[in-house]
Amino acid sequence: MQTENELKEIVRLKYSEIALQDKETNMSSCCGAGGCSTEVYNIMSEDYSTLNGYNADADLGLGCGLPTQFAKIKKGDVVIDLGSGAGNDCFIARHETGESGKVIGIDFTTDMIERARINADKRGFNNVEFRQGDIEKMPIIANAADVVVSNCVLNLVPNKNAVFSEIFRVLKPGGHFCISDVVLLGALPQALKKDAEMYAGCVAGAIQKEVYLELIHANGFKNVLVQKEKAIIIPDDILINYLSTEEIKSYKSGTAGIFSITVFAQKPEVNICAPGSGCC
Q: Which of 26, 55, 150, 226 has the fewest CB atoms within 10 Å, i.e. the most exposed one?
């Protein structure tokens, strides 16, 4: 079994590769992990193209929801996007926050940061900034953001509790987050969970929905709400790489499943530190 650092390196290498691919390549893959299905669509993502601020060359087809659509971003807000990729969610957030606001994207991968900065420079966006860093220890001061968004990223992080603790720290009192992510209901077959490619492809790093929501509550957030939920159907030509025919039949007929959820939660107005948050 890989250590946390080994899993991070898997993700870093894979997403460095993805940063150099075009959207069509990513859209024919499982969350950009590789050309793993003959069904040419991304099994995770939704259509961004109708949202204001959308930029096609910043859309790598890697998301599993539309967090910016539900994030209640206001003019003048400071928004942080975790795992900002080529900048897609940041540019949509910028449309909502306007010239008077600021958007900061954080990404683990140098190639993603470079691609996002090029996309921002092309458009003359001087209030969108991209910082390289680990979202388990963000390069952001405490109480800085009105809104935190993220799209199909926390499931890739081994220490999800640390990320929620950091989100609590960087949000202003009364601020909130809106995150789309991959979660599980029931037991995922071990052959899917243990494979490194599926880990980088968003599935094997997912945890149980109940545990995910418990982590949010445990880190001091209130008004926790699942805004949207949808089942993720993995095509048979992906499953066959990991499971036998009988195992596929059993998996598809069982109660276990993989879901995309979009979750909203708020930091209390009174800045009460969550245990271990480092904000005190």
A: 226
Do the bridges between strand 78-82 and strand 171-185 make them parallel or antiparallel, or are there none, so unpaired? unpaired
Full DSSP string of 207-232 = EEHHHHHHHHHHTT-EEEEEEEEEE-
Q: Residue 166's closest CA among 157, 130, 114? A: 157
DSSP states along 186-200: SPPPHHHHH-HHHHH
- DSSP code of 137? B
Rounded CA gap, 130 and 64, in Å?
A: 21
Query: How does pLDDT run across 211-259, given as a tens digit for each residue?
Result: 999 999 999 999 999 999 988 887 888 788 888 999 888 888 888 888 8
CB 170 within 8 A of CB 138: yes
CA distance 137 to 224: 23
